[in-house]
Design goal:
15-stranded mixed beta sheet; about 290 residues; 3-stranded antiparallel beta sheet; single chain; disordered C terminus; about 10% helix; mainly beta
Length: about 290
Amino acid sequence: MLYSTLLFQVLIAAAAIAIPASRERRARDLPRRGADVHSSQPNQVANKTIPVAGKGDAAQAEYSTNWAGAVLSLSRGWFTTVTGTFVVPAAREPVGASGFHSASVWVGIDGWSSGCDNILQTGIDVTTYGDGDVSYNAWYEWYPDYAHDFTDITIREGDTITAIVIATSLTSGIAMIINYSTGQEVLHTFSGQPPLCEQDAEWIVEDYTRNGQLVPFVDFDHVTFTGASAGGPILGPFGPGGAKVVDMQQDGRILAVAAADDSTVNVWYGLGIFGETLSNSSTSQPE
């Protein structure tokens, strides 16, 4: 039911969105280039991990160097749609840091399970440039391709955003962003892509890569995905209550922690509600 309802709503929205001129279509289809080539990545397992007091062993079983959030996984492919709504967070420089810092907030299918590295995803980037300038942009991606920016939507701090992905087959799908604060909707259809497994559904804040390197991670304070749901034409909808909760840790530093219930995924910068944000020295692992 979730799949058919969402697909119908997305197709209706697509019909209502004006078809851009050919020049605009070409611009939309170009990946970010040069210094701004940006790509999400499959989950990268953190080898060194730090237990987070107050979360408990059962809720703190997964660690990643580039993802924080929640992941639902099945042993066979069933997930064909994922949706989540969130308020665009502020972009701030981390304490003691300056210059460019960024993160991606997205929903997607696959990228967690072994052998399922292709990812259908859509979301926004939250970026600060260290001079008081910030930017927010919406994008779509079918990894391993690069992220492509939506050009006909404005994103600002405090806007309420819904992100939706629908796999219409293993190699085709739809990515959609709705900005309820402005009334804008954008949509991209994919075809002929590397095949999905449809085993994973996720709600993620990511330290994405630019030119093959993880970007400096922005202080986003807190992101809450509400109405988080995943399903398919046979099973679902599922909420994230039974999902794997993923914390982000790099080189002995806790960058983000997460928690989930039946319909909500929370991601905090640093330790969030589980304690003060740790400095690099206080989170260092002994050799």
